[in-house]
Amino acid sequence: MTRTADADPTAEFFDVSGFTRDELIAHNLKVVEAHFHNEAPETIDQAIALYGPDIVWEAPARGMIYTDPAEVRDSYMAIFRTVHFNKTTSLRRFATEHFVFDDQIADLTVVGDEMPNLGFKPGDRISMRLVHCFEMKDGKIAREIAYEISREYHGPLDNDDVPDDASVEVFPDGPHYGQW
Questions:
Q1: 151 close to 157: Cβ distance less than 8 angstroms
Q2: What tens digit of pLDDT does each residue of 128-156 get?
Q3: Residue 1 pLDDT > 50, yes or no?
C-alpha cells in the first residue's frame, strides 16, 4: 500500500519511497506538526507513535538521552508534571528530505521537580529557547534533539530576535497566563 504526501502522518504504515523531494519535505513537516500537536499528557502516545523503531531522544543541555519509547514516554510525563506552558512563540520551521528544524520560545512556569537537570525550582518562571532538530527516516522521526536553553524570565539572558511574522500561542491554563 502506498500513501500520498497528504496521508495521515499518525498512520502506522508509511511508504515514502515513491515521494518526490517536495512531497517528502511536506510529509516531514506534517509529521513534526502532528508530533508537537500531540505533546500533551492525554495524547502523548500519538506523538510517540510518530517515532521510528530505533528512536533516539536527546536533551543535551540537561544531559539526557533516551532510546526506549517507554523511557521517552516517562520523560514526557515528567516534563508535563514539571513545567506548565504560558505561551509559545514559533520563530521558524523548515525541512529537508532528512531533517526538520524548529525554533521557538516557550514561556514556562516550573510547577514540579521531575525534569532532571532543569536548574530551576517550582515557582520559577522561565523563558526557554527551544530548538529542535528532528532526523527523519522512512517517514518517521528517527532522532529528536531538543536544545532547551532555559533562562530566567525577563532576566539578562532572556533576549531573542523575534521575527515580525512569529506565531504566538497562549495557554489560558498557564500559571502566568496574560502576565507578559
A1: yes
A2: 999 999 999 999 999 999 999 999 999 99
A3: no
Nearest to 36 by CA among 83, 95, 82, 76: 76
Threshold 0.85, pTM exceeds: yes
What sign does the dihedral 41-43-44-47 (CA atoms) show?
negative
Classify strands 140-152 and 64-66 as parallel, antiparallel or unpaired: unpaired
Distance CA 174, CA 180 (A): 12
Give ∠ CA 10-102-171 in degrees, rounded to 5: 80
Contact 32, 102 (CB under 8 A): yes
DSSP string of 27-88, one letter each residue: HHHHHHHHHHHT-STTTHHHHHTTEEEEEEEEEGGGTEEE-SHHHHHHHHHHHHHHEEEEEE
For residue 5, the number of C-alpha atoms closer than 13 Å in the C-beta half-sphere is 13
Question: Whose grid coordinates read 539526557?
Answer: 64
